[in-house]
Specification:
Layout lengths: L1 H20 L10 E9 L2 E9 L2 H22 L7 H6 L8 E2 L2 H16 L9 H13 L5 H8 L7 E4 L4 E4 L12 H15 L5 E5 L2 E4 L9 E4 L13 E4 L2 E7 L4 E4 L2 E4 L14 E7 L2 H14 L1 H9 L5 E6 L6 E4 L17
Antiparallel strand pairs: 1-2, 2-6, 3-5, 4-5, 6-7, 7-10, 8-9, 10-13, 11-12, 13-14, 14-15
Length: about 350
């Protein structure tokens, strides 16, 4: 017994010494920047994120891209078997169709914006958009008779939503829904949400001109985002804005347009006329989520800078900017809140 009492202090000292040598992971491990790119929705999507290791970064990025693919499979008007295309084929049948939670959310937001903008935003514009896609491929104006016929199937008033059942009825024949002005923004939001669900709190997701960010990169107070300049000779560089937990979308005729007899027609079609916009402009909108930013760029594009920015001023939590070249001069317009996002000299980070 005396022997055990003499040994015990030694064993206790050895145990404590051994425990002190065990390494514990730091509470906040350093984060590394990872970047990914993948073709989705017919264009490159980019994910930038900060994670403690490659495995967690890869897992989160894959979840983000899978979410985008899932939404494209549901909302593409190019894919004949998408949920959206199947819904369009029921137009004029007198049948209601129950839709998924995702499609319901986008259609509900679309109809709310259509009513508020009196049709400047309207996802039923698909028949006219389809003719303008063909016109760009063939480099000639749409046939006027076919355009007039297509316009008969356009009008947000022809969409009936049944909230209790999440059901939709398209009231007139030959309707074709086109979510190109809102679904991409929603996909960006949902990809960012998927990253957050996988433990990533500092990330950026971009698809075309749509972008959303969560927390800022380590050691920075915001993401440093450069807005594209107008694609014309001697155009000044676009401004740089600082964003965190926010989104920005930019729309215009930079990449998709039709030039006929010296006149430039945008891929953005005015739902009220069925004609591609002729204003050479870029519209940027900053909002809390990318679905809002994406859809509002189309409203401002259709309404024009004066009426469009009045619409922005009347919308809580958003800011807008329009740069255009109606003639030889480049003009820029901003809502009252846009300047608060401008870059300050004491902060910058490569997105």
């Amino acid at each position: 017994m005396n022997h055990l009492r003499s040994v015990w202090p030694f064993l206790l000292t050895l145990l404590l010494a051994t425990a002190s040598c065990v390494s514990h992971p730091p509470e906040n491990p350093p984060l590394t920047r990872y970047e990914y790119q993948q073709a989705q929705m017919g264009l490159p999507f980019r994910i930038v994120l900060y994670a403690p290791d490659q495995l967690r970064a890869d897992r989160a990025a894959e979840a983000g891209f899978q979410r985008i693919k899932q939404l494209n499979d549901s909302m593409s008007d190019y894919e004949p078997e998408s949920e959206l295309s199947k819904l369009s084929r029921t137009s004029g049948s007198g049948n209601e169709v129950r839709v998924s939670a995702d499609l319901w959310r986008v259609l509900k937001r679309s109809q709310e914006l259509a009513e508020r903008s009196t049709g400047a935003f309207d996802v039923t514009v698909g028949p006219c958009v389809n003719l303008w896609r063909k016109a760009r491929r063939e480099e000639k104006m749409p046939d006027p008779a076919r355009l007039l016929e297509a316009r008969q199937a356009v009008g947000y008033q022809h969409v009936r939503l049944r909230p209790a059942r999440h059901a939709v009825e398209l009231l007139v024949p030959n309707m074709r829904l086109d979510l190109g002005g809102i679904a991409k923004g929603f996909a960006v939001d949902e990809a960012l949400r998927a990253l957050g669900g996988n433990g990533i709190k500092q990330a950026l997701v971009a698809g075309g001109g749509d972008m959303a960010v969560s927390g800022p990169p380590p050691g920075k107070r915001a993401w440093h985002i450069a807005i594209a300049p107008l694609d014309t000779t001697n155009a000044p560089p676009g401004p740089v804005v600082l964003l965190r937990h926010a989104a920005i979308a930019t729309s215009g005729d930079v990449f998709q347009r039709l030039n006929i007899d010296g006149k430039r027609y945008s891929h953005i079609v005015d739902p009220r006329t069925g004609i591609g916009l002729v204003d050479h402009s870029l519209v940027s909108v900053i909002a809390k989520d990318c679905m809002t930013a994406d859809s509002l760029t189309k409203v401002v594009s259709v309404l024009g800078p004066e009426r469009g920015l009045k619409f922005i001023e009347a919308t809580p939590g958003v800011a807008g900017r329009v740069v255009r070249k109606p003639g030889e001069r480049i003009e820029a317009y901003e809502s009252s809140k846009f300047a608060r996002y401008y870059e300050k000299k004491d902060s910058s980070v490569r997105p």
